[in-house]
Design brief:
Blueprint lengths: L2 H4 L3 H5 L5 E2 L5 E12 L16 H11 L4 H13 L4 H8 L2 E3 L2 E3 L37 E2 L6 E3 L2 H6 L14 H10 L4 E9 L6 E13 L12 E4 L7 E9 L2 E4 L5 E6 L3 E15 L5 E10 H9 L2 H9 L2 H11 L2 E3 L6 E18 L5 H4 L2
Parallel strand pairs: 9-16
Antiparallel strand pairs: 1-2, 2-7, 2-16, 3-4, 5-6, 7-8, 8-10, 10-11, 11-13, 12-13, 13-14, 14-16, 15-16
Length: 371
């Protein structure tokens, strides 16, 4: 029985930090995810070929590849530096794809855009998990900066880690994800993580559920996530995931690495879909939780989430959008297409933070009365 139901007295409802025990002595803690983004560890030594140029400079590289003369490029560069209008360059970039020699939209047709061969990240460290089992012998893998496990697979970080909008750390959030989360947290139903076991203060087996709520994340007036708010689980089976796990030294992990599906948002991806899913979640003394979720994710939905911002978002938020397509295609490392051999999934690790919550289980009538 979920904690929202069995903790019905006002006193117990207020003391969520202590957990709510059933008569059998089991303990359940619910958390509402209050931050979710790619786990990044940007530093001064991770991009030996340099961080990618600003998008204005990348536009000039495209213009050169599209046949612009050196004199025209010099004029555009001067106008950029002086803040003058470069509308003709903008028009060229908004149609820089080419199919049979004809201009096409570069965001919906990224394969038709020339690959500038921008470098990927080649540093030593990345957050994540040893997904393929190769361990320290894998020359393409990372070392986790917290656990120091070697053989970490996180090729999405290798693909995007030298692009300006995706650089950051756990404390200094990447520009793209900070912008995206700001748009989503008050308009996308919250994700709920539930951990159940005999005694979560002790090592032992647990059950871990990752689901979507019907309500949005509740926030305080200053935008910070609000503790101890009540949520109802969405009964839609597309966002219902439960795994066997374990808790050790206050860290929850899952021990069956199946699939995960969560409805998300087209601004990032229509849904979060992971195979070989891994989780490492630290239960904090202040009742919050923080940790990492990883696995193999289809990379085309990631791309089209980014591409949805179009030309304006490319200039103001993301940087070179078709370049992300070519980088993810290059570094994708799972699920090869049986015909072409091109990998259709890429190893990823996301960082999440969560606050304590009360949760009511899914009910067949909920969806009818909640909208």
């Amino acid at each position: 029985m979920a904690a929202f139901e069995r903790c019905s007295s006002p006193l117990l409802f207020a003391l969520a930090a202590l957990g709510c025990a059933s008569q059998a002595g089991a303990e359940t803690r619910h958390y509402a995810v209050s931050w979710f983004a790619q786990a990044t560890y940007s530093n001064d030594h991770d991009c030996s070929h340099g961080v990618h140029p600003e998008v204005e400079q990348i536009y000039l590289r495209y213009a050169e590849r599209l046949g612009a003369t050196p004199a025209q490029i010099a004029t555009w560069r001067r106008k950029q530096m002086e803040g003058e209008d470069v509308r003709d360059l903008d028009q060229l970039m908004m149609n820089r794809g080419r199919i049979d020699g004809k201009p096409v939209n570069p965001y919906t047709q990224p394969a038709a855009v020339v690959d500038l061969q921008m470098p990927g990240l080649d540093g030593k460290y990345a957050f994540g998990f040893n997904l393929d089992g190769k361990g320290a012998d894998d020359p393409n893998a990372f070392e986790d900066p917290e656990t120091h496990e070697r053989g970490v697979d996180h090729q999405l970080y290798r693909a995007l880690g030298c692009t300006r909008a995706f650089r950051g750390s756990l404390e200094s959030r990447p520009t793209y994800y900070a912008w995206a989360w700001g748009q989503l947290k008050d308009s996308q139903p919250a994700w709920i993580v539930t951990v159940s076991g005999d005694d979560l203060s002790k090592d032992g087996p647990v059950s871990v559920s990752i689901e979507r709520a019907l309500e949005y994340l509740r926030s305080n007036s200053d935008g910070t996530p609000r503790f101890d708010m009540a949520y109802r689980i969405d009964p839609d089976p597309r966002s219902r995931n439960t795994y066997r796990g374990e808790v050790k030294n206050g860290v929850v992990s899952i021990i069956e690495h199946g699939k995960l599906r969560l409805l998300q948002n087209p601004l990032v991806a229509p849904e979060l879909e992971l195979s070989n899913v891994h989780l490492r979640l630290a239960l904090q003394p202040d009742r919050t939780a923080r940790g990492f979720m990883g696995g193999y994710q289809p990379w085309h939905p990631i791309y089209f989430g980014i591409a949805g911002v179009g030309f304006g978002g490319e200039q103001q938020v993301t940087g070179d959008v078709p370049g992300f397509y070519h980088l993810m295609k290059r570094y994708a490392d799972a699920d090869p297409d049986p015909v072409t051999g091109q990998n259709r999934a890429i190893s990823v690790t996301y960082y999440l933070e969560a606050v304590p919550a009360f949760v009511r289980p899914a009910d067949a009538t909920q969806q009818l009365t909640s909208r």
